[in-house]
Amino acid sequence: MGPLWTVGLQALQTRLDTPAIPWKALVNALLWGVYVFETYVSWRQYRMYSRTAPPPALAGHVSADDFRKSQRYGRDKMRFSMVSDAVMHVVSLVSVNYNASAHMWGWGGELLRWLRVAPSEQALSAAHMLVTTVCYLPLKLVLEAYRAFVIEARHGFNKQTWGTFGMDHVKQLLLSVVLGAPLVALLVSVIRWAGDAFVVYTVLLVLAVTLFGSVIFPTFIQPLFNTLTPVPEGRLRDRVTALATSLRFPLKHLYVIDGSKRSSHSNAYFYGVVPGGSKHIVLYDTLIEHSTPAEIEAVLAHELGHWSYSHPVKMMAVSYVQIAALLTLFTAFIHNASLYEAFGFRGPPLPVWIGLELFSLVLHPLDALLQFGMHAMTRQMEYAADAFAVRLPRPQGADDGKTYQELLQSSLIKLQVHNLSTMHHDALFSAYHHSHPTLPERLAAIERAAKTD
């Protein structure tokens, strides 16, 4: 970081650290601004569910009954989303105005005393994270249970039992204790140790945690929630293996995951973020149930397009640049006593973990703006992956005479109908919320890619 930039940040820090800035009123205004904007965007999409016919691009592929089911499902999800957003907005306002974070910091200290743990900043930060998680857990459980056992069940998607639902959250809470708390303590330690150079070391820590997570997630964490079994010998395995071999994709394992144990929605993905390292493809059992081997092959051709263009690595790089930029800006807030005092904290020391939490409140609108940019980028990547699949010749052994264009379009339409996905999209809502293009947009782009081949 250059000296002029450093001097500029120090000047900004001095200007911001003043009781003249009404931090709490400012945060309230920012929370209201984002909430009003998001509610307006959701209302624009809600109007789409009053339409009585599918968009022209889907009219020949979707029955009137399936369209009505999709509209009802979308309407129910949007109503629930708007209610849950309003509830969470009220919770945020109450937390801000009654200094909930400061109270939870104190409760974290009580927890450490009960556990007979020395109250270092690292330990207090980890305890604060756990106390916060537990305090918000009841509301989270109510909202998620309603979504699963009312909204999803009403439309035939929920497959989980109350026992599975409960155990999932118990396991998540235990993971917060076993993994989350030590990571919080480690983050605080790195920032305190690095001093003015904490931005570089924090980004390196995030990178190390990401790589570590990519190793332990499929081996230790995912098996806690789902069962992965090798795809059996047969046509599907043969077609996927032939596709991977033709592209020199370093496929190590091909798995099927029991997604139907919780939902009848379908999906497929690959993991393995280390460039040049082995990769694993995972297919949901619901995808296998509702698609032909050739259609799944086309879906995976799209996924391998992401790999061929290094999209995961590029997205990681963009994320780290974003993290570095935000942390650099955080240097102007990390010692801001007036900000801490406005929310019930008086130092020294001023807890780093709390500083990050307060900083995120101040930067809340910026997160909303960044969402537009990140989604625009990922949508372009989706178009590129579709075009990659369309232009790809099928490996030897395909005897149905169909191209990836035909198979990908067929598969996307099937998934749209099976998942009762929304068919009409408001442009602003889609730009803000969707990381993928809408189906009509994808079908049109696939047609264009096929013509320019």
UniProtKB/TrEMBL annotation:
A biological process term (GO) from this entry: CAAX-box protein processing
Ranges where the Peptidase M48 domain occurs: 232-448
Protein's name in the database: CAAX prenyl protease
Protein's membrane topology: Multi-pass membrane protein
Entry's localization field: Endoplasmic reticulum membrane
Keyword Transmembrane: yes
Residues in CAAX prenyl protease 1 N-terminal domain copies: 45-227
Pfam families: Peptidase_M48, Peptidase_M48_N
Function per UniProt: Proteolytically removes the C-terminal three residues of farnesylated proteins.
Catalytic activity reported: Hydrolyzes the peptide bond -P2-(S-farnesyl or geranylgeranyl)C-P1'-P2'-P3'-COOH where P1' and P2' are amino acids with aliphatic side chains and P3' is any C-terminal residue
Active site, renumbered: 303, 386 (proton donor)
Keyword annotations of the record: Endoplasmic reticulum, Hydrolase, Membrane, Metal-binding, Metalloprotease, Protease, Transmembrane, Transmembrane helix, Zinc
Binding site for Zn(2+): 302, 306, 382
Textual note on the cofactor: Binds 1 zinc ion per subunit.
GO molecular function, one term: metalloendopeptidase activity
Cofactor: Zn(2+)
Keyword Zinc: yes
The enzyme's E.C. designation: 3.4.24.84
Membrane-crossing segments per the record: 20-41, 173-193, 199-221, 317-338, 350-370
GO cellular component: endoplasmic reticulum membrane
Family membership: Belongs to the peptidase M48A family.
